[in-house]
């Protein structure tokens, strides 16, 4: 984050915000700057990417599903906006340690070995964080923890891209912790770290985007929106972030119901077809959802 801090200091904070007598390397000033930058960056990234995903990728027919809540999108956004500033507080503490030089982040690349190490570090970052997120996420489902921390995120049974960051603050920070731990354990280029941080947030949005299409060749390996939507629906399956590896190792893998023609989109389609074939049907009747719960359908 020192790159970001240096740029914002040079173009904004030093000439327009802070008094000239306040040193740029003062820890209190850096803390304030990082809080501003991290919150602003997080909100811009969230609203820009989630909005694009919601309007151009998310299948809006999912909003007809009986487990899609009233005013759900606005509630997802409100929950996110309220949580993000609190998530940023411990996150900034870690950013500050990075800025002060306690991490293994570096900014020089030697040819050719430096480029080879850069590629290896990206791969190891993804697999390392995927492993830790699996176990953190699974731990958050423990009965002693779930109702206090992780339950708010499972309010959204049929999530939209705006649900991607709608976490309890402690939940959101714990699931982001592996990304911040990595550069304290392993060398990582500073620009690559920033790029991966952006990638992680976009991926988090993508697994909540309601687009269940995955190339068949990748279905056994990649944890996509179909897998994660089933996690929201069925609770005890598909805890992974990028891959299905740790779910298979941990015995929590479930083949997505959408791949079997039993997912939420199939349910909505079947209900619509039934309504078209029975236009005179009035009143209510009980239907059993794909997750085994009964609900009333008009």
TrEMBL record:
GO biological process, one term: negative regulation of ferroptosis
Residue ranges, annotated region (Disordered): 274-298
Keyword Membrane: yes
InterPro entries: Fatty_acid_hydroxylase, Sterol_Desaturase_Related
Encoding gene, per UniProt annotation: SC5D
Main location: membrane
Name by which UniProt lists this protein: Sterol-C5-desaturase
Cofactors required: Fe cation
Keyword entries, A-Z: Lipid biosynthesis, Lipid metabolism, Membrane, Steroid biosynthesis, Steroid metabolism, Sterol biosynthesis, Sterol metabolism, Transmembrane, Transmembrane helix
GO MF, one annotated term: delta7-sterol 5(6)-desaturase activity
Polar residues composition-biased segments: 274-283
Sequence intervals crossing the membrane: 32-58, 79-97, 117-137
Native organism: Cavia porcellus (Guinea pig)
